[in-house]
Every structure is written in structure tokens, then in C-alpha cells.
Design a protein that fits this description.
Blueprint: H1 2-22, E1 25-30, E2 33-38, E3 41-48, E4 50-52, E5 57-61, E6 64-68, E7 74-76, E8 79-85, E9 90-95, E10 100-103, E11 109-110, E12 132-136, E13 140-149, E14 152-161, E15 167-171, E16 177-180, E17 213-218, E18 221-226, E19 231-238, E20 240-243, E21 248-252, E22 255-259, E23 270-271, E24 278-282, E25 288-292, E26 297-299
């Protein structure tokens, strides 16, 4: 009876998966053009130069794009640029009238204002099994490691020096304390071996900012110092540095930029935070547009 129940349950799950797969949009080719079909039925004719069905359906024809949901209902044709932003699982377009529209995987539009990410206090993963603690002190960074193996607790502590006379010192989570989760190579027998190091994962750390980066002011200007590598990451030239979830806002001489997305050379008179994949900007000569996470600009027309 138990085995029969398991077989029935497995068959139900398999049927559900197959049914869903059959109802997903599928790209097809006809006369060197592309269209979209569902369950073998051609719904969008083969009139496009290319079609992507990775998230929603985006179809390209010349310099124009059409956006469909997964039921192949047309959502928008007024598209200048688009981006599937994986970290938030959203699809965004810049319209030809220079507005941002944001969609979820069902093709429902989302309020873009809710995507704004401010300065982060909880940048790194926290857990009741978090092993590594960093604290900024007057003389440097104190590092405490606690390793849990069964009921045993192995403490480790080191001190890292930071630049002398630094002011307003903080981590990239905008705090003087940082707790992160790391994983230790279990086959290493000497847990106190200085040459051993934790194996960090993408789930643990937000890239490309590192947990070893310190923001501080030196001689009245801000910069970024890597306390573990003992080297300067961003020179101490800036009036202001603001940390966001995985990038830094840099400002000097009335101009701003994002590190590392755009670079360390400020170029914008105005620069707002990223709203998903795009941020709004204005250049010193009055040009306005959007810039993506790779630094590509889309100017208003």
C-alpha cells in the first residue's frame, strides 16, 4: 500500500511537471524568422529577428522590441532597452519616453520605488552559526573566529592594523561591527594553523565588495582600505563615500560615480541609487539618462 501511494504521488508530480513544461512558451523558426508557440500551437507569428524566453518573452525586430508575458499577451512595444536583473528576479525596460517599467515573472508590473536599496546595515549573511566577527577598534580590526564541531568551540583571535589617524572608520555595511558566515575545510586537522583560511561562498558575501574593505577619512578625504591585504583600494580623494548593497557611491568636486560599476572617476552632476538594474543620472552639461550596472548609458531622447 505504501509503495503504491509513493508511485501514485510520483506519477502526479511527473504529470504536473510535464503539463507545466508543455504550457511554457517556446521559440520556433520559420523562413529564417522566429516566433513563439505554446503546447505546439503557434501563438506569435515568425516575424522576429530573434526571440528570448529565458524569463518573460522578448522579441526583437530590427531596432524594435516587443515584450510578452508567458501567456504571450503583449505587455509593451515602447522599449528602448531592457534587462533581466537576476538578483531581484525581475525584468526591467526603459521605455522610449525614458521611463522605467518593472515586471515579475508573471508579467505583472511592479512599483519601481519599492526596489530602492539604501545604505546597508545587514550587508552580509547573519546566522546563529556565524563563525567570524570583525570589530573596528582605535588601533585596527579585531577578528574573532569561533568554530563549531559538534559541541566543541574553538576560538581564534587576530588583530589587523588599519591606517593610523583614520577618522569615521567603518565597514562596507556602514557599521563598526561585521558578522559573516564562513565554511571551514573539514579535513584540516590543525584548526589553528595560520596558513589555513576559510572558504567563502557567493551566498556568504555580496560581490564585488569585500568584507575586508574599510571606509575611512584621512586628511579630510574619504577612501577605501583593505585591512587584510594592507593596501589602498580607492584613493583618499573623495568628499563622500556611501555604501549600498553591493556598490559604493563616490563624490568629489561636485561630481559622483559608482564603484565598481562605473569606476572611480566621477562624471555625473546628479546620480540616484540603482532601482534594480538602472540608475538615473545627469551630466554636467545637462544630459539626462539611465546607466546600467555595467556602466552602459541610455540617454533621454
Amino acid at each position: 500500500m505504501k509503495n503504491k501511494l509513493i508511485i501514485t504521488l510520483f506519477a502526479t508530480i511527473l504529470t504536473t511537471i510535464c503539463f507545466k513544461a508543455q504550457n511554457l512558451p517556446e521559440k520556433f523558426e520559420e523562413n529564417s524568422k522566429y516566433g513563439v508557440r505554446i503546447d505546439g500551437k503557434n501563438v506569435v507569428p515568425a516575424i522576429y529577428d530573434d526571440v528570448s524566453t529565458d524569463f518573460l518573452v522578448i522579441a526583437k525586430k530590427g531596432n524594435k522590441f516587443d515584450l510578452y508575458n508567458n501567456d504571450l499577451t503583449l505587455l509593451d512595444q515602447n522599449i528602448k532597452a531592457y534587462e533581466y536583473f537576476i538578483p531581484m528576479d525581475i525584468f526591467q525596460i526603459i521605455t522610449k519616453n525614458n521611463k522605467i517599467k518593472t515586471f515579475n515573472n508573471k508579467g505583472q508590473q511592479i512599483d519601481v520605488s519599492k526596489l530602492k536599496i539604501g545604505s546597508q546595515k545587514d550587508l552580509f549573511v547573519k546566522s546563529d552559526r556565524a563563525l567570524e566577527n570583525y570589530t573596528i577598534t582605535n588601533n585596527g580590526v579585531t577578528y574573532t573566529r569561533k568554530e563549531y564541531f559538534g559541541k566543541e568551540n574553538y576560538p581564534r583571535e587576530f588583530n589587523y592594523k588599519i591606517i593610523k589617524d583614520g577618522k569615521d572608520t567603518r565597514f562596507v555595511n556602514n557599521e563598526k561591527n561585521l558578522m559573516i558566515l564562513s565554511f571551514y575545510n573539514s579535513h584540516i586537522s590543525d584548526y589553528f594553523e595560520k596558513t589555513s583560511s576559510p572558504d567563502y561562498t557567493e551566498e556568504t558575501l555580496y560581490k564585488p565588495l569585500k568584507h575586508t574593505y574599510i571606509i575611512l577619512k584621512l586628511n579630510g578625504k574619504y577612501g577605501v582600505w583593505d585591512f587584510k591585504e594592507q593596501k589602498e583600494i580607492i584613493p583618499f580623494h573623495y568628499k563622500k563615500i556611501i555604501p549600498y548593497q553591493n556598490y559604493l557611491y563616490l563624490e568629489k568636486d561636485g561630481l559622483s560615480t559608482f564603484y565598481p560599476n562605473i569606476g572611480t572617476d566621477p562624471r555625473y552632476k546628479k546620480l540616484g541609487p540603482y532601482l534594480g538594474a538602472f540608475a538615473r543620472f545627469e551630466t554636467p552639461d545637462g544630459k539626462i539618462g539611465w546607466v546600467d550596472r555595467k556602466g552602459k548609458e541610455y540617454f533621454d531622447q
